[in-house]
Here is the input.
Amino acid sequence: MSRFSGDTATAKTSQPPETVSRREAVGIDDISVYIPKLYLPVTGEFATSRGIDPAKLTRGIGIERMAVPDAHEDAATMAAMSLLELMRRSDLKPEDIGKIYVGTESAVDEAKALGTYVIGMLEQIYGAGSFQDCSTVEFKSACIGTTQALEALCYWVAAEDEGKVGIVIASDVAKYPLRSAGEYTQGAGSVSLLLKKNPRLIALEGIFGSFTRDENDFFRPMGATTAVVNGKHSNQCYLDAMQGAFDAFAAKAKRKGTIVPQDGECVTDFFSHLLFHIPYPRMVEYASAAIFEHYWQGLARWKEVETEIGAEPKAGDCESADQFLAAKSDYSRRFAKSKHFLDAFKSKVLDTTAFSRLVGNIYTGSIYLGLASLIEQERIKSGDRLCFGAYGSGCSALVFSGLVQPKFASVPKRDIFRRLDSRTLVPLADYERLHEGLKEKSIIAPSQEFALIEIDHQGYRHYGWMC
Ligand code: CAA
Here is the structure.
């Protein structure tokens, strides 16, 4: 067996940890995805108007299409749409749901929880008052909000003793100024997760590694409609935070005896797939290169890497600290192009980005869109251990793991590729008017969906189900 088998082919298996087997497992039972019906291709009119080589966008950034919300859509309508689909798929009734936690950084109100608007919309389907015994709260922590919500809700689900389930909703519109470097990473969409005991899809292993540091990489001051982003700095903050959270996870998993690498092994060998937050698809390549480089160093396999890309630069060989840093960064770029890394990347990470290439960034839901990508492409199997690496600007990261459950294939598919294929292309001029809030009439009149109907003189938002 190749020494790389752990990171290129089948992951190493290990006994499901006691934390999962002793108590009832808690985790993700089902997942639903809502993506707006409009899209803008980044090649063609968009690339020409911005003076950008299309190859930079499709290869350098990894994006082909961006989802564009229509005039009647916002984070609340998209959340209601993904929740409605989840309830219908899993045959859930309002009284089955104990809590709805919403992760968003596209809040529609400074005080009122987005989930209350969502409940208002769902009650138009299920009846007035049907959700009154269900509580809801909004989690704001940039793109990690949904994952923080998931962690918190798992503890509640574990303690719940009346058979109720929890829902986590991610819903966001990723929006940057027109013609900025962030513009071609925009997107919009919502993902809902059903959390319960003995889940059909993924049982979480109860190990969370975190990292937090005060940063100015990306933020949206009060009242602003687009994010302020320090682009390259944001990439570096993401990598630092992910590494920190990964190290914390690995140490905890080892302490608990869940993942105990033997000689010649490292923690990444124990994962079948690694899902990272996807602000744009190339970012997960940078993230996985950093993680694999860090964990492979010192193992026997590193000799094979060195045969391909040479030995790591040493401080003593450089004339200054700056020269050493530049040499190290150049070496990491060579590692990211090495066959060994690319094989591991293709086998364990690339497939998580399939939907993001066609949707763009959906902020808090991106990592779970990655999970949907794996599921819809039939890339997971029972017993697989998945690693989730969530990132939120500002900045924090949270790394956790889960085991694919034996009944995962009994969960119906979602037909997401076909739905993405049947979207309508929005002309550039209309996209720009929608972006600037200048288009009051919807491009596609809403039908069989929730829509924002009016914002009244007090600022209260009125939503309705459009037949
Ligand atoms: N053909 C092929 N590739 C090309 C090319 C061409 N003609 N021209 C350039 N490229 C490649 C570059 O070489 C580079 O790839 P490598 O890193 O492999 O060299 C890649 O395209 C990106 O190009 P740039 O380095 O010029 O980057 P940019 O100026 O386009 O900025 C960005 C990229 C910083 C991500 C910017 O889009 C941005 O600010 N985005 C918003 C912030 C963001 O997403 N940050 C990510 C971390 S923060 C986070 O994760 C939270 C969140 O969701 C926002």
User: Anything to note?
Assistant: Residues 271 and 385 are 5 Å apart (CA to CA). The two ends are 59 Å apart (CA to CA). Residues 1-6, 17-21 have pLDDT under 50 and may be disordered.
